[in-house]
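Wait, mind explaining this?

_____
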Amino acid sequence: MKLCIVTHNVKKGDGQGRVNYEITWEAIRRGHHVTILASEVALELQKHPQVKWVCIPVRGWPGELLRNMIFSWQSATWLRQHQCSCDLVKVNGAITKAAEVDVNAVHFVHNSWLKFSQKAVKPKSVWTIFHPRGILYDFYQWLYTAANAYWEKKAFEQARVIVAISHQVAQELLAIGVPAERLQVILNGVDLQEFSPGTTDRSVWNLPKTVPLALFAGDIRIPRKNLDTVLQALVEVPQLHLAVAGITEGSPYIKLAASLGLSERVHFLGLCHNVPQLMKAVDFLVFPSRYEPFGLVVIEAMACGLPVITASTTGAAELVTPESGIVIADPDDRQALAQALLSLTNDRALRQKMGKTARTIAEQHSWNQMAKSYVDLFENLHKQTSLPDG
């Protein structure tokens, strides 16, 4: 089978990129040839004889919205000229303006975030208060989200099969009119060797050694990840420290932590390139994202044997059982979050018990298992297409 994958990146260290990285390797193992339309591809795939990389450069163009538009136009142009030489085309969301594709894997439903953000993030949010460019940033994000919401609906209409990366995403797709018969769910996976239980010395990150320590990891330049509610809840848990992994440049949350009197207990680490080791240095993960289609950090923490505190608005919350963590109903419920933090902070035995269960759950969701599900789908679709009429 000649498979074509259209995506921005195919590499480790990138959520959507890692999914396509693993799918590509599984397709190679089964003897298929893969053409990748992308801006960046892992070096080991570039060199593989069964892989053809069609580079679509977008670096240098200002703004993600414009870069995405250019990628969409250029990839569609290539597909119009060469799609007939491909047996199956897989895309992600509204990534290309191609007329028809076989599989569209959905990692984010912009229509859902657009609706949720209008309710969850108030006009005078922490972003506007602590960030001098907050209003302009909010307008750009609204424009970007609204445009993608429109383009996605068009793209979903043109796909034979639509894959949701969580049951939450599946429900969101049904809500915007995607027919149930064209919808499948394939959960994202985790590297069970890279993310595994263990301990590391906190001094590597200049973190305090003898205190309960939670981890928040994500983009702290945007309000969607919900670090503001975590900081507000932390005020009510005075014995707990928090390590924050995420790019600090342009983030309002350092000022917010200081205004709440948390500067001594919140440790901003910046962008961390060794998250698996960092997870081995903390006691649990807190990640109550306001909207998260899946949330790889959740299953990665579980694979490291960490209990997880998250919110029902995070897709990976479906993996978190009462025996492995705590799921709060409303990501902005500060009191509920504070109570969850207290529960894990004050009970080391509970943390250890939950962590063991979390690892067991994660072991059922390897990257290899996920990739097999995708390639099984591709092969079945290809067989259906290849069958003679009648």
Remarks:
- The chain has a mean pLDDT of 92.
